[in-house]
Every structure is written in C-alpha cells, then in structure tokens.
Specification:
Blueprint: H1 2-31, H2 41-52, E1 67-71, E2 85-94, E3 98-106, E4 109-116, E5 119-128, H3 137-145, E6 155-160, E7 164-165, E8 176-186, E9 189-202, E10 205-215, E11 229-232, E12 235-246
C-alpha cells in the first residue's frame, strides 16, 4: 500500500513537471511576443557611426547641412533592422493565444530631403507596401488583398507641408528631436499628421527615426480579421528608421 502511494506520488510529480515543460513550450512557441523592438536613435546612431567611420576625415563633412539629401539604403542591413526601413506596429487578438503585437517592415524606402539655410524645406518619402514582411506569411498575404490592400494601393507616402527648423545641437555629437508636419497617404487616403522624429548626424549622413499614431479608420482600412485573428486595434503606429546622405 505504501509502495503504491509512493508510486502515485512519483507519477504525480512527473506529470507536474511534464505539464510545466509543456506550458513553457507553449508560451515560447505560441504565446511569447517576439515583436521587434521599436527603433531608437541610439541604436541607429551606432549604425551611423560604423557606416560613416567616426573620426575619418573623408566622412567629416563641411559642417553645413544645406543641399539635397537622399535615402541611402547602403547604410546597415535590413536583416537585423539596422538599415533603412518603414512599417507598422499594431496590437491584435489571436484565437487561443491572446494579445500579440504585429510588426511589419520593408527596406524599400526611397525619397529626398532638402535643407536651405537653417530649415528643412522639403521631405518626400515613398514606401513600397507590397514588400512588407512580418513574422507571419499568412498575415503578409492577407494584407495584399485585404486590410492595406497593397496589391491595389502599393505605396505609402509622406510629404512635409511646413518648413522644419533644424533642431538645436544637430551635428554637435548628440541627438536632436523635432516634430515634422506633413501629409501621410496610405490606402489612397491622405491625412495631415505630426511625426515625432529623432535625428543623429555623422559626417554627410543622417539617421532619422520616428513614429506617428495611425487610425485605420482614418484611412478607410478594414482590419483583416479571420479564423485565427479575432480583432485588430484601430489605433497603431507608423514607424520608420531612415538614413539620408547628402548628395
């Protein structure tokens, strides 16, 4: 009788351990939120320094910001998100899993920036939405025909509508913050937005990191819910990390 009780106790203990292992495994593979961290100017600055060769006279620039700047996709890489990219960040509710942060990004960003005097007078950026990548091929496929409908609306654009004074401290070894006002076009709909940006400069290359809140309903976008995706929050974020080099 005592042996039976010991056997049952051992079995119960083994069962408990197995359940814990299964629970941890389920959390790791199915529930754990693996969304990439938001871009930060500190991380972008590290890439900027590596790319420009800190201390190299060839990358030192002439101390002037005036002129035309263009998006430079040769800085960093998209594989580790150290290069230029733009994308979205939205919270979603998944069946049998719960809340998850969906993040999709693309390296296909083009555009220009013009600086005259002490102001940024023009910024025009275009993002190819057809190449957005997330951690789910199913999600990416759904966004091509539903939601963003990138097959029908393949690009998103941002154009500065008000001159932006160059932030104080830019080019003095630190980062600077500013608010850019412009028109954001997504899904064929254009709205005025205010984008909070952080800027770092090394030589003739600048890193610009920013984000702007986005309401899907403001752009006529119906969230692509389905069997596995129960809901997607209306409010999310348009985020980006862009490197510009002066021409």
């Amino acid at each position: 009788m005592a042996r039976s009780r010991r056997t049952l106790g051992i079995l119960a203990g083994v069962t408990a351990v197995v359940l814990v292992i299964v629970g941890v495994g389920a959390w790791y593979f199915f529930i754990r939120d693996d969304a990439p961290e938001e871009a930060s100017i500190e991380t972008a600055g590290e890439t900027l320094d590596e790319a420009s060769g800190a201390g190299d006279e060839a990358a030192a620039g002439d101390g002037s910001f005036e002129g035309s700047w263009a998006v430079d996709d040769s800085v960093g890489t998209f594989d580790d998100f150290s290069g230029t990219w733009a994308g979205y960040r939205f919270d979603e509710e998944l069946a049998s899993i719960g809340t998850n942060t969906a993040v999709g990004r693309t390296p296909d960003v083009t555009g220009t920036m013009t600086v005259a005097g002490n102001e940024v007078t023009a910024v025009d950026v275009e993002v190819d939405l057809t190449t957005l990548q997330s951690d789910s091929g199913t999600r990416d496929g759904a966004l091509r025909s539903r939601g963003l409908q990138s097959d029908s609306f393949p690009t998103a654009t941002f154009s500065l509508t008000e001159p932006l004074a160059l932030p104080d401290g830019l080019g003095e070894g630190g980062t600077a913050a500013a608010t850019a006002t412009g028109e954001l076009t997504i899904h064929g709909t254009t709205n005025e937005v205010s984008v909070e940006v952080d800027v770092d400069l090394s030589g003739s290359t600048a890193a610009v990191v920013g984000q702007a809140p986005v309401l899907l309903s403001d752009y006529g976008i119906d969230p692509p819910t389905g069997f596995s995706v129960l809901s997607i929050q209306d409010q999310g974020t348009f985020e980006f990390q862009i490197f510009f080099t002066r021409q």
